């Protein structure tokens, strides 16, 4: 365990005062529904232990997940389990692509001192305050703040807390959120640094406006599911034979929305986009994704050459930090009918605020692990609603489909009330390792029914793929490979 001894005894102090806590301060802090004796007892559960594992799947061996910038990804996770003094547990994760996962694991272990000893009720009764406590330790924030490894670790812990809360209430996470009073949801959000774009009152107004027709939208989702698009057909490392076979299979399964990885070679991109467009026909949707490959002028020129294939959007055309660059690309491509999508590597709510204020994106791609879990994604979804920009989550990674399905269901039912230009990414990899895997029917996400956040990994898979001592990695690395 890589916690410095001082963290084992010192009391972590938040650097930002807990302001803005007056809204609904007298409001009962539980979702609607009968609070059984068992539920109330579970809310009193005290977190006694945080376990984090480095779990890596060798997806690079078959080029799954490959793109112009990440040519050999091993889909991986820093996997968190929260134990309590009862039978209640919480499971959470954050996504990585191999090397560096051990650094996130170390960050989780260091932050675990903030969590151990608290009851679930202590946390959720002041979730805004707990978020600030976790994200803004006066020393740890120096290697953030609210970005990078620290934010990935924060997300893993918070995802586990949300999973535990949903389990305590006996509901899937999306239903826990949908059943909350708008004022309860507001108290989960840290509005620091974003009130120039979205005030608490504006957020409350958006949620209360969406109450109209809410039950009908929930019933619709339970019956039909949420529309999805597939990325699994066209990873950059796939051969033409693989592309053709996978695309043909997807069409037979009812898929109508497809994403193609681009950015390594223009002529190859033209050939691959032509192949996919010819297969799916003119009536189906095509998106392209460069994974941050280009400079601004290069992005405009390159995508203009691909305009004949009518992509709905170009995803991550340049550096994920270049807000003004994205704005320039958006302006240049608008006459071609091509939007800009980004967000999977957007650090926090503040960056999303600036992207929206600068009209730098036309599709908001939230990620369940890049920012501060559900808490921060609530802020981002509400800002997107105010700016009238559709949310289309990123889900290209292990466990991300399982997580983001809850967020996008909530967004439709309780925030945006719209499906216009909206869809959620789906990748058909590694779902078999989860206790409650994603269910897709007719190219739609079917709402999960099991309590929790759907991110509990099967224990057998954790043991088998744990890095570097799990069975799979001992076989790949060889018995004589030094363990680091």
From TrEMBL:
It catalyses: L-fuconate = 2-dehydro-3-deoxy-L-fuconate + H2O. Keywords: Lyase, Magnesium, Metal-binding. It holds the Pfam family MR_MLE_C. It comes from the Eukaryota. SUPFAM superfamilies: Enolase C-terminal domain-like (SSF51604), Enolase N-terminal domain-like (SSF54826). GO terms for biological process: amino acid catabolic process; carbohydrate catabolic process. Residues 240-336 form the Mandelate racemase/muconate lactonizing enzyme C-terminal domain. Signal peptide: none annotated. Its EC number is 4.2.1.68. The keyword Ligase does not apply. Its cofactor is Mg(2+). InterPro entries: Enolase-like_C_sf (IPR036849), Enolase-like_N (IPR029017), Enolase_C-like (IPR029065), L-fuconate_dehydratase (IPR034610), Mandel_Rmase/mucon_lact_enz_CS (IPR018110), Mandelate_racemase_C (IPR013342), Mandelate_racemase_N_dom (IPR013341), RHMD-like (IPR046945). GO terms for molecular function: L-fuconate dehydratase activity; magnesium ion binding. Belongs to the mandelate racemase/muconate lactonizing enzyme family. ENOSF1 subfamily. This is Mitochondrial enolase superfamily member 1. The lineage of its organism: Eukaryota, Metazoa, Chordata, Craniata, Vertebrata.
